[in-house]
Amino acid sequence: MKKVHVTTTVNGDPVEFLADPRETLLDCLRNHLDLTGTKEGCGTGDCGACSVTLDGTLVCSCLVLGVEAEGKKVETIEGMASEGELHPLQRQFIEHAALQCGFCTPGILVAAKSLLEQNPDPSESEIRFWLAGNLCRCTGYDKIVRAVQDAAAEMRGAA
Amino acid sequence: MAKDEITKGYKLVGTRPNRPDGLDKVTGRARYGADFSLPGMLWAAVVRSPHAHAKIKRIDATKALALDGVKAVVTRADLPTGLEGEDLNLQENTLAGEKALYDGHAVAAVAATSALLAQDAARLIEVEYEVIPHVTDVDAAMQPGAPVIREGAADYSVPEGMHPNVVRHMEFGHGDVVAGFAAADIVREETYKTEATHQGYIEPHACVGQMGEDGRGEMWVCTQGHWYIRRMCAAVLGIEAANLRVTPSEIGGGFGGKTTIFMEPLALALSKKAGGRPVKLVMSRAEVLRATGPTASASMDVKIGMKKDGTVTAGQVMFRMQGGAFVGMSPIGEALPCAFACYDIPALKHEAVEVLTNRPKAAAYRAPGSPMAAFAVESLMDEMCRELGLDPIDVRLKNAAKEGSKSSYGPVYNRIGLVETLEAAKAHPNYAIPLGPNQGRGVASGFWFNHGGETSVSLAIGEDGTVQVSIGTPDIGGSRASIALMTAETLGIPYENVRVNVVETGALGVNEPTHGSRATFASGKAAVEAARQAIKEMCRRAAAEWEIEPEAVEWKDGAAQPAGPNAGKFPPMTIAEIGAKMGGTGGPISGHHETNAGGVGASFGTHVVDVEVDPETGRTTVLRYLVVQDAGTAIHPAYVEGQYQGGAAQGIGWALNEEYVYGADGRLQNTVFLDYRIPVASDLPMIDTVIVEVPNPGHPYGVRGVGETGITPPLPALAGAVAAAAGVRLRSLPMSPPKVLAAIKAARQA
Amino acid sequence: MARVHLWSSLRRFAEGQEVVEVEGATVGQIFDALARTYPGLAPAIAAGLSVAVDGEVIANSRSAPVRPDSEVYLLQRLKGG
Fold first, then answer.
1. Of all helices (H) and strands (E), which one includes residue B107?
2. Distance from B85 to chain A by nearest Cα, in Å?
């Protein structure tokens, strides 16, 4: 199938790539732009490992076509730390041991950042329901939820 | 970093520093199986059988190979013949031969210049099947008339007269069970069933393989054990192990499912056929569920005799397990010894059979066999405690195995910590919280052997006194941190000065995988021995410098020091000073340790769960959950807690939701995470943990291994809690809402 | 001589005995002695066995030491997740 030229912005940088119209945004990020921090766990939008934001909206990049990124702004895990400084969520995840294998971690961090942008003071239940689309098989979620709570508190200036 | 336990006198062991790979993993930089690429790389796709049982009459790849960009196709005809035993199993699971044995069985593979092109090409490969009768249920497979999956497959252990699908048999016990049951006040006998579940690691299997016409190759792969990958690929392809260099990627979960091969030889075979171009092969989630891993399904009869005071007088089990269409894959040999391992019972009889079915080749899953066995035995224990009005923890304490007890599988236990976990569970506040309507509490204990195994570790002192440790057990849950802690503790240097690397097959002797809860135990033990060897050499270098006897030098606080006043007066020579000078004092300083690690300490745990069951929908909500487990010594307590919590979560999924659903056509019906539903964040509460520490005398820091036991108690604990909450006892997992609701309705009508 | 306990389904290969006594200073020597004395046990040993020696479970080591008065239990080959 003839490829489509896509121009978009990823983590603030202008990028271009040629996408097969059948390729997902996830495939394009990983295979055309070498942004392999975004993971594929299912390809059906059930596991959230491929979470990115598209014009600020949290999406599963496996359910978005690469050509749909044309003219939009994509944010991935690679853009989460700014100028060498970790986002509070990233730091809290390390300090809380909120990851074991770490495969789901990029997607969970992207999703949690999106949550805290909309709700800076989420309850435990709100965190759990927001992250219900991000599967983790290692941790039982306990330390993940605590890390998000502490990052939220830190970002509110309450820590 | 707060010290959790100061009485042991360790400086670092027991602290919670940040893991060394944390930064890479929160920034997306960590490279997993599918993240690796090479110049000129091709992509592969696999053609899989849509039938549960079918003769393969013809495979025609003409149309696929005619596509521009398609470089190679492999079928079973491309693989060597003459393999036997498990090697033949591995080859046959890699690519079907005369028969496809389960829905999803690989039949052919193709490599092309892009992933989409490879998928297009796979669809053009024509396979002609002759569908034959199939069976997927363990009990149905033993019935007269059930289709025979392999003629003459039974091994030496199977007595004559059993169904041809029964391929292994095991029986053991001790004492007089007839007298034991006669001495009981009540004797109960029930049948329990568990469905197959999948390990459910979020990272699908992925590898890049490269192999030249000369049979030399390389592989980058997500695996729990890259020497196993090397040995198995070499066997399946008929090449020499040393000619295959395997580098493990970071691994996105394994839980036993990545201790073997499923598709890795295909990447190498395709690469060889495509002129040596590297080939990437990544499974889809549906491929993972249909054709990798799952655990066995089980049908289990249990009989227990108990006195009115809770003393167990005798126990008997008969387990039937299927591990797919391949001999030797069900965990009957683990399930039976685990069944009554928590108890000191005078008379026991264990029997099990392994049955072939048209299902995928089962793989190890966290404490293989133990969760099913516990579901059966601990559920019946719970039913009898309730019948007699006895506290379940008191009854377990009364019968608990301890040091000196004869275990259910024969040998006498060394120091073990089951009693301590029971006492800690009973003393925990969760055990006293009052329950409301439709709520119930369940208790269960669990056991796992733990494992040492083949281990090779190398350690090198740097020119600045920092230390590099090379290990061969892939780090899945933070073992690099725990091994760095033990190494730094032994050397008396800061944790940050030790870097632990998981290295490729060319860099160390053979290592078994990260399995059997062994990484922190065995690689840690070997790293400590390697550090001790380096310390000895550093003391020798200092002695030579000081011109005194090596025996007059001791190692303390990261430095060589005169061992006493008679040794002479010299200022301590630090590891940094020794490292800076080592080029001139005799060359590089390193330590090695190779062993088949012994000194394994058995693991026990006790869980307490509270649930609420909605009588209108049958849905079970987990209100609170407590894991108490003996770690021996918790090297990095945060990651010990993580193992407890993760094991509990997997067990909760097994108990409440997860199951393989096969249609009448023998096809797996739930091949995506939407339908094979593992616990999500909103399904679970916080999971409380208590780390009991009864040090294992067989490890320099007392480690037992903590990875597996935690998945075992949730199955029966949840069953007991649901029974208490809803008034119905489910003896078949999962306790999904429709099943619970049906049981509630049936109880109302009765 | 070490006392080696056979699980029930192995006993038919050892004249029905539950416990057999064989010479051997290591697990491997015990296996070899068993296979020599009771050839019917050879397939089971070849298929791979684990053992418990004086209470310690040993999954796959032929070199593990066995004392003259050790109590050895044969187990099916153990696998871990």
1. strand B106-112
2. 33
- B166 residue type, one letter: V
φ, ψ (nearest 5 deg) of residue B745: -65, -40
Cβ contacts of A137 on chain B, cutoff 8 Å: 199-202, 253, 255, 646, 649-650, 678
User: Which amino acid belongs to residue A117?
Assistant: E
Q: What angle do CA B340, B343, B346 make, to 5 degrees?
A: 90
What is the pLDDT at residue B300? Answer: 98
List the domain boundaries for chain A: 4-79, 88-156
In angstroms, the CA B163 to CA B149 distance is 11
Q: Any idea where the domains of chain B sit in the sequence?
A: 401-446+601-749, 452-597
What is the distance in angstroms between the Cα of A141 and the nearest Cα belonging to chain B?
Answer: 6
Minimal Cα distance from B413: which residue of C?
C55
CA nearest B640: which of B532, B529, B478?
Answer: B478
Instruction: State yes or no: pLDDT of A159 exceeds 70.
Output: no
The CA–CA distances, whole Å, from B47 to B123, B264, B273, B663, B680 equal 7, 15, 17, 21, 32
- Residues of chain B with Cβ-Cβ distance to A78 below 8 Å are 27-28
Q: Do the domains at B401-446+601-749 and B452-597 have one common CATH topology?
A: yes
Q: Which of C7, C47, C59 sits opposite B155 (nearest CB)?
A: C47
- CA-closest candidate to residue B12, choices B569, B384, B494, B547: B494
**Residue C76 pLDDT:** 85
ipTM of the complex: 0.98
CATH top-level class of B452-597: alpha beta
Q: Which of A67-71, A101-105, B171-175, B276-280 has the lowest mean pLDDT?
A: B171-175
Chain B interface mutation, best of C34, C56, C63, C70, highest count of B Cβ atoms under 10 Å: C56
- A94 → chain B, closest CA residue: B22
Express each pLDDT in C47-74 by its tens digit: 889 999 998 888 888 999 999 999 999 9
For the sheet with B166-174, list strands across it: B166-174, B348-355, B312-322, B297-306, B186-194
Asked if residues B151 and B71 have their Cβ atoms less than 8 Å apart, the reply is: no
The pair of three-digit structure tokens given for residue B268, joined into one six-digit string: 């190498």
The class that CATH gives domain B401-446+601-749 is alpha beta
**Chains in contact with C, where contact requires at least 3 CB pairs less than 8 Å apart:** B
Q: Between chains, do C80 and B517 touch, taking CB under 8 Å as contact?
A: yes
- Chain B residue numbers with beta carbons less than 8 Å from the beta carbon of A133 are 680
How near does any CA of chain B get to the CA of A75, in Å? 13
Q: For tokens 């696999």, what's the residue? A: B46
Closest Cβ–Cβ partner in B21, B27, B673 for A90: B27
The CATH number given to A88-156 is: 1.10.150.120
Flag residues of chain B having pLDDT under 70. Answer: 1-7
Q: How confident is the model at residue A158 (pLDDT cuts 50, 70, 90)?
A: low
CATH number of C2-76: 3.10.20.30
What is the model's pLDDT at position B1?
37
Domain A4-79 CATH (choose: 3.30.300.30, 3.10.20.30, 3.40.190.10, 1.20.120.80): 3.10.20.30
- Asked if residue B109 lies in contact with residue B72, where contact means CB atoms within 8 angstroms, the answer is no
**Phi-psi label, residue B615: left if phi above 0, alpha if psi -120 to 50, beta otherwise:** alpha
Question: What value does the mean pLDDT take over residues A70-82?
Answer: 97
pLDDT for residue B692: 98
Cα distance between the two ends of chain B: 59
Share of chain A residues as helix, strand and coil, in percent rounded to the nearest 5:
40, 20, 40
User: Is the bond into B572 cis (omega within 30 degrees of 0)?
Assistant: no
Give CA–CA dist C4/C53, Å, rounded.
9
- Contact list, B410 vs chain C (CB under 8 Å): 5, 52, 73, 75
